[in-house]
Amino acid sequence: MNYEMLDISGDAGIRAAGASLREAFEAAATGMYSLITDLGGVREDRIVQVSAGSESPEGLLVGFLNELVFHFDAYGFIGKRVEIKQMEMENNGRGSLKADVYGEEFDPGRHSRGLLIKAATYHGLAVEKKDGLWSLDVIFDT
Q: What domains can you pick out in the chain, each with its CATH number?
């Protein structure tokens, strides 16, 4: 996946990219999970299905990532690989997606603990296409 950590004073963020908006969203999700733990130790034992919808691509990204945060907070599910199965973007910006997330229950005995992510935020949020490549910047409340 194509993502990198953003150097932001006092905050945590990632920049994700992809040839399609779908690929960039998948990279953003994987990047967020990598802030929580080292993904090398995460197994793909379970599949969790998530969905999100919004009036804008930016809102869709935040809603999608916050759905993943919810599954981690509520159920202890940590994802390793994300596959967006369906993604629709209308001309007016409204969009929706459905994704399968492959991972397992977070185990503090096996998984290192990185950041405690509370939410993806709209602060510094960017969703843009330049030179045929989608780029996403997102900052997390930790």
A: 3-141 (3.55.10.10)
**Helix, strand, or coil (residue 30):** helix
Per-residue confidence at 105, pLDDT binned at 50, 70, 90? Answer: very high
Residue among 90, 102, 86 at smallest CA distance from 44: 102
Contacts of 61 (CB under 8 A, 6+ apart): 25, 28, 120, 125, 127, 136, 138
Query: What is the bridge-based pairing of β-strands 11-18 and 3-8?
Result: antiparallel
CA distance 75 to 34: 18
Residue whose entry in the numeric block shows the structure tokens 């990198």: 4
pTM of the predicted protein model: 0.94
